[in-house]
């Protein structure tokens, strides 16, 4: 890591797409590219010209924060693709989460989502030796992180998505 830049380079097998995007680029660029998914989703349902103007302004902002120089600060195409992929997943999460929250009552949608997420990651965790390193304090801390960073916020979000409906924003 030189010059205060984030680590750049190949994706590691143990990090999700978004995290590789932050390793390959500045956090600001990775988050901006990831936000393209929800932005595209919002614009796809819009018919007002002013909404498309905001998309153009967002694109200009992306161009302005992109490191166009060569060398160690150069753009990593894999990092860009993975950050955009994470944005697409975020957009899919918004659409699917809204639908699921209307079908399953209460916190069942979050519990179902957390169950499938756990089942998806469990084989990788065991392949990395989770069973040998798991202690009661580590399990308790992991459970606390899962509840406070995922289960509680996602439950509140699902409750909001169930009662909120899409309404056009007032013109500024």
Automatic annotation (TrEMBL):
Top-level division of the source organism's lineage: Bacteria
Keyword Membrane: yes
Domain EamA: residue ranges: 78-167
Residue stretches spanning the membrane: 52-71, 77-96, 108-126, 138-156
GO-annotated cellular components: membrane
Record Pfam families: EamA
Claim: Transmembrane is one of the keywords in the record: yes
Keywords: Membrane, Transmembrane, Transmembrane helix
Classification via InterPro entries: EamA_dom
Protein name in the entry: EamA domain-containing protein
Taxonomic placement: Bacteria, Pseudomonadati, Myxococcota, Myxococcia, Myxococcales
